[in-house]
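Subject: complex prediction, re-run

Hi both,

The earlier run crashed halfway through, so I resubmitted it with identical inputs.
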Amino acid sequence: MQFTSMILSNAEVSPGYWRMRMTAPQQFASATPGQFVMVRVSGAIDPLLRRPFGIFDVGVHAPVQSGAVPQPYFEMLYRVVGKGTAMLSALHETDVLDILGPLGTGFNLGSPDEEKLIVGGGVGLAPLYLLARELVKRSPVRLFAGGRTRDDILCITEFERLGVECYTATEDGSLGECGLVTEALLRRLDVLKGRATIYACGPHGMLNAVAATAEARKIPCQVSLEGYMACGVGACLGCVAPGRGHSAETPDFRCVCTEGPVFESNELKWRD
Amino acid sequence: MQFTSMILSNAEVSPGYWRMRMTAPQQFASATPGQFVMVRVSGAIDPLLRRPFGIFDVGVHAPVQSGAVPQPYFEMLYRVVGKGTAMLSALHETDVLDILGPLGTGFNLGSPDEEKLIVGGGVGLAPLYLLARELVKRSPVRLFAGGRTRDDILCITEFERLGVECYTATEDGSLGECGLVTEALLRRLDVLKGRATIYACGPHGMLNAVAATAEARKIPCQVSLEGYMACGVGACLGCVAPGRGHSAETPDFRCVCTEGPVFESNELKWRD
Amino acid sequence: MKPDMSVNLAGIMLRNPVMTASGTFGYGEEFAEYVNLESIGAFVTKGLSLKPRAGNPTPRIVETPGGMLNAIGLQNVGIDAFIAKKVPFLRNVNTPAIANFFGNTVDEYAELARRLDEIPEVAGLEVNISCPNVKQGGIVFGTDPGCAASVVSACRAATKKPLIVKLSPNVTDVVVMARACEDAGADSLSLINTLTGMAIDLGRRRPVLANITGGFSGPAIKPIALRMVWQVAKAVKVPIIGIGGIMNATDALEFILAGATAVQVGTASFINPGAAQQIAGEMEAWLLANGVADIKSLIGALEV
Amino acid sequence: MKPDMSVNLAGIMLRNPVMTASGTFGYGEEFAEYVNLESIGAFVTKGLSLKPRAGNPTPRIVETPGGMLNAIGLQNVGIDAFIAKKVPFLRNVNTPAIANFFGNTVDEYAELARRLDEIPEVAGLEVNISCPNVKQGGIVFGTDPGCAASVVSACRAATKKPLIVKLSPNVTDVVVMARACEDAGADSLSLINTLTGMAIDLGRRRPVLANITGGFSGPAIKPIALRMVWQVAKAVKVPIIGIGGIMNATDALEFILAGATAVQVGTASFINPGAAQQIAGEMEAWLLANGVADIKSLIGALEV
Ligand SMILES: Cc1cc2nc3c(=O)[nH]c(=O)nc-3n(C[C@H](O)[C@H](O)[C@H](O)COP(=O)(O)OP(=O)(O)OC[C@H]3O[C@@H](n4cnc5c(N)ncnc54)[C@H](O)[C@@H]3O)c2cc1C
Ligand SMILES: Cc1cc2nc3c(=O)[nH]c(=O)nc-3n(C[C@H](O)[C@H](O)[C@H](O)COP(=O)(O)OP(=O)(O)OC[C@H]3O[C@@H](n4cnc5c(N)ncnc54)[C@H](O)[C@@H]3O)c2cc1C
Ligand SMILES: Cc1cc2nc3c(=O)[nH]c(=O)nc-3n(C[C@H](O)[C@H](O)[C@H](O)COP(=O)(O)O)c2cc1C
Ligand SMILES: Cc1cc2nc3c(=O)[nH]c(=O)nc-3n(C[C@H](O)[C@H](O)[C@H](O)COP(=O)(O)O)c2cc1C
Ligand code: FES
Ligand code: FES
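This time it finished cleanly. Structure:
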């Protein structure tokens, strides 16, 4: 679906990280956790391509007057890394954006009886909040949020408000445990003795470690990938990621924008 | 001079015509009537080139508090015709622009004893207001403002406030005389019996007619030209206009951005 | 009165001159949500090869000022899967589908032309000659007039369907290439394919693309494409398809003035999946507003 | 510690690798208000011919997406007026001035090289071979290896000063051209000159430029320039000057990684007259921040 969205708010939630709320059409309510949008940052040709962002949350503004039509909205959580995100962060309420979405295949909510362990690195939390919101309806949920410093630990209060138990770790020890958040994850897995599902989004190194853990312990694990995208609809074939059996001789590429961005970690090829 | 300017106001003064006031450094006060600025509309590469605009007015905001430093400013009067001017019109107070100027060679104020006849077509009035402001200090000044419809007749009140007698003409008769403003000019020249100086800025057809009149009646006449400009500082050689003696065999090009944009009309080559 | 937007592209009747470009519109179905396929003139499939191809490692895409580079590596399902899985979709679409294809040898090109010739759902063939000739040490077919002519002749002998030859812009003289392809039997020429470009990641001191270089497309390349279309249109008799950086109806009409009978919209479909349909609609509106009764009267109507 | 920014360009010592490109920086003096000429590596004059040239009719300039086309027509004061009016300014500037020049025949090129060789204020010569050869029916010197070699040999014989040959990108294989020029005696190669492009005014149904086509420059062309510099740097031994769409220090450093010893800033000086000085400053800051002691260690340091 392509639509023109009006910005309702755009605020810096931590140095370099922004949260934007914007209007959406009614049909957007069907967006599932893990899906994403492609945002046209400017009507001019610079930047030329749309930028992909996870859907942080969806909701509806209750009508102020009885009888008025409610206003659906969605939110993005984004980090300013380059030209496009810098331009996004300069936008204000009432500015409009051209949006394509919801796109892609999101998370599989899995069986309700297992504890759900959500692992997010930095802005990798973006698609995990909507996921947590769904998961808590059926299962116990724990969040493992990691970052380099405390500035990279985002929106923990929001997760806590959902009833999610949160662990944090930073590499410099400025918030939570000092080190990698995967250590807390390992401890929890020890406790659960393998009855859990992992959901992860974050830097590739973190996903790699989480996937290796899941593999070693035979735990189902879904990861949300990033990939350089031009179209977001399966046409350009730019965004692909190597599947499990991929090699130069037996190539096996998966389309991140349509088959993903969420994959079972054992479908994919990881570094050893 | 290159400087960062902050927009103080930006308002539509007639459908499609905007007037923008923006801060300037102290040295900008030395700008002379007929000079221009090159505006970088966007920090991105679209639009890539700066856009040239006349200097409509310069001034100083008196300090609100005694002892505070006064704020010099300048104004542009511009018409929305394409991408760059459309983007300009979307800017707000406190937005900033990168400005190069004042550039070029402006009007020669000439001898004080002759009546000064200013002829402007549409947004061609832009560089003529500052000129009128200077001329009225020394000479009687009349303005002949023409346009297609009344929407194209701009800022007459401002000229009248200077004590300039104003004639207007529109092609559709919606304001002032019906027809071309050059007719009123001719009548005035008849009255003055050749003791006058003409200053003109506007569409090429109008300048051509004014130059022919000046030539026929041997009246000094200065015109402000437009030309496609890349640099504004005499380096690209894109903006040139043919000089009087120009022909394919004896080429003679004048640099509009440095030798102009104002030329004595008899220095230039005109259509017959 | 509604302007006549139809054009005859070497025997393929297009309801309007707006096509989509190979590699930017999948096999058609990917865009069914965004484009009413029956509102555009024709669409061109992703380039097909005899065997399926996996393409290059990633990153395959990078944005550049006003454009993009791609090094997809011609990933495609291969001719067999195309017939089995993609052709059925074409059956129900009342818009000409053009099959784009490429080979590593002249024989592969000819074999593909033969296979595609048998598919009734394929209205025409577009041969991509911007591929290295494995038998001649990697020289690109499309940069040598002799090589190009041999590909075109072989395909010509293998198909009765309209044969469009897609020219590479990475040449000293595109007119020489155009004439060679016309003489060898091309019914139409499409241009331009991507220019070869490169992007570097300063921080990592590496090329951005895993493939090092990639194909350059998007609005940035329009001036080059327009120049080449104009040059070729003056030099050949067959109809030309203008391609390169077309983002809106103005761009498309400029190509038609320069001599193109039809245009292809490429990168624009990534930015705006409905681009082709929108451009066709805006072109019609422009004709109406400017009192042009028939788009054909604009073909090559540039006054120089 | 301040990084070492100096490079040796075929015997011309540059305090840093940032030069300005011919035709975009006048004769130096036009930019004296905006650039401290002694903060950049070198500057290159507008292309000189034997006789003054008036250039093309207007419009000569048009903006395109991310770039611009120019058809100035090589307007310049001619070698005599250069010596009389422009050289005195060079005398007081402690920065190498490179004279760019072109001819219509091999003899004209050689004659200009001889005249320029006698001017002590000229540190080096840059020969622009992107001009039509009037004796060979207009074929552009820079698109034919034989023609290019004959120009370069003739200039080589006429000057002892460092001879830079500026390559045209409008060729099938820039490496062939580069090798031909190196073999014919070039001390350095600069690339790229402008690509040939065209823009159309739909409303008037005419080309925008009076000259119909023009030279395409600016950020849009950077991917092509970067690719060509990288290809040529692998193939020749002489130092290379990278040119094409350089707008900032990152762009400049990318060209150096690709193999350029120095860079030229062109169109950027129009948008920001202080661009060259600013880029040199930002490059130095980047080296400092990234712990690079010597810019020379980055030349060709791309990891592929
Ligand atoms: C499916 C998906 C979901 C994403 N969700 C989020 C999110 O919710 N919040 C968030 O902050 N970021 C998210 N990202 C990353 C985000 O798309 C990039 O940070 C953003 O595109 C950078 O744009 P830029 O212009 O600021 O950076 P630039 O570096 O100027 O971008 C240049 C080009 O590289 C691409 N690019 C740069 N970084 C990335 C990246 N990490 N992944 C993919 N492409 C990239 C850009 O899209 C653009 O085409 C997501 C990426 C994908 C693929
Ligand atoms: C010395 C000078 C003074 C000017 N003063 C004024 C003024 O005070 N007010 C005003 O409204 N306009 C003025 N103009 C014209 C103004 O520069 C153009 O209208 C403006 O550049 C259009 O930009 P755009 O992006 O909206 O249009 P586009 O058509 O998108 O511009 C495309 C390109 O064409 C150039 N261009 C388009 N129209 C003109 C034109 N008429 N003259 C020169 N270049 C043009 C642009 O600068 C740009 O490079 C002046 C022009 C010159 C040369
Ligand atoms: C991602 C991508 C994939 C492409 N794949 C093909 C292809 O398979 N075959 C082909 O002939 N051209 C291919 N092209 C070239 C386009 O069809 C078109 O010629 C080019 O992109 C220029 O047009 P544009 O600027 O409108 O994109 C591809 C282009 C892109 C951007
Ligand atoms: C207006 C203009 C005039 C130019 N004149 C010359 C010239 O006289 N001689 C020459 O060798 N190159 C000339 N060039 C080419 C530039 O030196 C440079 O090679 C080209 O613009 C690419 O660099 P850029 O993208 O940084 O502008 C000119 C370029 C422009 C834009
Ligand atoms: S982004 Fe184009 S195929 Fe995935
Ligand atoms: S605008 Fe560049 S020389 Fe006048």
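Residues 2-103 of chain B form a domain with the Elongation Factor Tu (Ef-tu); domain 3 fold (CATH 2.40.30.10).

- K.
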